[in-house]
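tl;dr need the bound structure. longer version: we got a ligand (magnesium ion) that a collaborator sent over and nobodys looked at where it sits. i said id run it. heres the input, straight from their email, havent touched it
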Amino acid sequence: METTLRGVGVSHGVAIGEVRHMGTAVLEPPAKQIPAEDAEREQGRARQAVDAVAADLTARGNLAGGEAQAVLEAQAMMAQDPELMADVDRRIAVGSTAERAVYDAFAAYRELLAGAGEYLAGRVADLDDVRNRIVARLLGVPMPGVPDSDQPYVLVARDLAPADTALLDPSLVLGFVTEEGGPTSHSAILARALGVPAVVALPGAGELAEGTVVAVDGSTGDVFVNPSEEKKEQLSAAAAERKAALAASTGPGVTADGHKVPLLANVGGPADVAAAVEAGAEGVGLFRTEFLFLDDSKKAPSEEKQVEAYRQVLEAFPEGRVVVRVLDAGADKPLDFLTPADEPNPALGVRGLRTLLDHPEVLRTQLTALAKAAEGLPVHLEVMAPMVADRRDAKAFADACREAGLQAKFGAMVEIPSAALRARSILREVEFLSLGTNDLAQYTFAADRQVGAVSRLQDPWQPALLDLVALSAEAAKAEGKSCGVCGEAASDPLLACVLTGLGVTSLSMGSASIPYVRATLAKYTLAQCERAAAAARAADSAEEARAAAQAVLSGE
Ligand code: PEP
Ligand code: MG
């Protein structure tokens, strides 16, 4: 029977497919005793699960090839290690269940490895993965991590962190549904980057059975469970119609009366560049360089590796602007070698620029790599720092850029309310501002961007957030400098008009949103956008602000 669930739509479009859950960490199996006569059957179950996991790892290695194949084959061998299996059998013979015996035998082996020198200690994570796979199979729960599927699916998760999603195969993910997360969570950002529909903060998402067919409407936030054929056709037809209308809009971002608002792309690395070019992005407004750092949690990527990645992005926009954000580690994007492990409140701790000022060598390598990557290219390179709190932060960053000999404009992200309140002071040190409305909302409303329960306060239509945007844009105008938006607020077509009316000079967003924003902006004059902005700021809630702006723009 068809049922409808409602969450928050954060990435446009419709996805229809089967649910696959992102497996969570395997729980410790209960330590219950089995009768002696069951031991043989349990030993058989354990062996079967081990063999199946080893076969699966080998098969995936054959598919992957290269270095990945060597790692997966080594894991398959670990699974079948004769001593480990003998230990599992012994534990079952004295009353353990198969899953508990595997769990305990691997724990003992893990301790041995962890104390056996650096190389073997480095294999502990691989061993844990093998154990989790065997235990998950024995318990009949989804495998931990990204689903093993060669058919396209709708990914359902509690929430998605950048590290979880690094392994996703974008060609298999039709859409996302998450139980937690708000419009600015990483699930939402990633969905927009991939151009797949997504619904977040959906209560009950975790209870959707594996394999259930769902239709996800990323514009309305509706998730239809077991949709009828009629519903599927209706949703697909509406989505196709909208897509065709959007394809007709091309060219730079401009209001109906010719006021230019460059539309730029948010990218995470070279892999996102093709979509940005295809969407007609006029450049990159936010290059989130931390994605380059996720491959190895123990050290920064080498200067050469960084030069190569930066150059690929810079070359894609030979005449355009490319705004590179230096590493934003910490809080929801922790890196083992940089982020303190014991902070009571990581979002308010050492993250973003604070991390880099504590590790100047990481910042220096990044800036030197950027200088080398830009050598000989006509690109307009701009570099900005995340989480700038005050003028002192801005100066420290600008000094580091100058010391690295970087030929670029230096800017500051406005993500902390203090930076918006004192934007003029910050602009004494840097040449542009870029509003990170995701974090700016988080810190203005004391609402963690990863917590679905407070997603109401993450709504970028909140008038208090619009006030801070206006303050920053006015300060930049007074200083004759630019002030863009690169947070998710820019990807909402109606809000993009309001931001333009508030004086924002460019809008940067996930590439899939560019056609939607371009088409809407082209319908209104700057004066209309300004009136809509004033009406939104005069409202008392996000809902009222949206309705007020909509009323102005539709001439009601
Ligand atoms: C923001 O906070 O708005 C932003 C653009 O940065 P991120 O989402 O990567 O924290
Ligand atoms: Mg941010």
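gonna send this back to them w/ a short note. The two ends are 40 Å apart (CA to CA).
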